[in-house]
Amino acid sequence: MKSRTILRSGLVLAIVLLIMSFIKLPFYITQPGMASELEPIIKVENGFDDEKGSFSLTTVRFGRANPLTYVWAKVNEFYYIHPLEDIKREDESDKDYMNRQLHMMEVSQEAAISVAYEKANKKVEYSFHGIYVDGVIKNMPAASKLEVGDRIFKVDSLEFQTAEEFIEYVAKKKEGEEVIITFEREGKRDEVKVTLSAFPNQPDKIGLGISLVTDRQMDVEPEIELQTEEIGGPSAGLMMSLEIYNQLTEGDLTKGYQIAGTGTINAEGIVGPIGGISQKIVAADKEGIDIFFAPNENGDQASNYNEAVETGKKIGTDMEIIPVDTFDEAIEYLNNLEQKNA
């Protein structure tokens, strides 16, 4: 009898826990992810591949909170709870959010390639491929006709190569006028008519209700292949640029060390801050990383680097945490690094 009662109680508890796991709360939970080597996913044609160590990107895992994960995050250090508005734009769907993250990765990837190839004195050229829809505003004319991820190729039969040209053209229109937009979605071309109207909270501003960025393709020699389709966001920029440069140039910048890091990078090679630096330090430490590059933000007291150092002290890491403001600083550090003893 007692065993049956225990079995029933266990079954009831399991059902309750299962139900709770499907309840979505208005929060996201982030936690330490992992360090992933870049060499397997970045391949420069006929590139140098004699790395004795490795370059790795670091990740943060995140997901929508339910009652169970919310409580777990409350009692675990380096698990953070974020309101929805800190992660997603207002009225942004999960699909739109992921599309925006993947596009940010594409932009970061392009900057990383550009910096590495130019520093290695290799060919870099650009061709333009429309304008990327980066956001759609609810209750504006384009909301029911365009989606995040669409690529616009023509407006009223006019071809524009940059988002700025598109915006300048539309800005000359008046409320109530229509434009015909030719776009591509998931490999298929289509066109729609969109009427310009005033923005809900800015009655003096007229537009379609979309945010845009220029979509361009880079042409480089030697060719490069990156398998980063499932990596979102811009934070791997610095580490990708180092891996690409290492494959483009003779010698091994890793010197036998396991090297990870984080930070955005722009076309000028400037390293920018990211979110979740503490969680990335924890992830890198668990993976046995030797050296970690962290954005220095020109020595700001609240920099990623200073936060990384504090986290390193908390967890007692043996990693060397190195501050960087530019790609060149990271290369200089690596060039001066002594070979790791076998």
Automatic annotation (TrEMBL):
Its EC number is 3.4.21.53. Residues 101-185 form the PDZ domain. Pfam families: Lon_C, PDZ_2. The chain crosses the membrane at residues 12-29. The active site is at residues 235, 280. It catalyses: Hydrolysis of proteins in presence of ATP. Residues 229-337 form the Lon proteolytic domain. Keywords: Hydrolase, Membrane, Protease, Serine protease, Transmembrane, Transmembrane helix. It is an enzyme of class 3 (hydrolase). InterPro entries: Lon_proteolytic, Lon_Prtase, PDZ, PDZ_sf, Ribosomal_Su5_D2-typ_SF, Ribsml_uS5_D2-typ_fold_subgr. Belongs to the peptidase S16 family. PANTHER family: ATP DEPENDENT LON PROTEASE FAMILY MEMBER. This is endopeptidase La. It comes from Metabacillus halosaccharovorans.
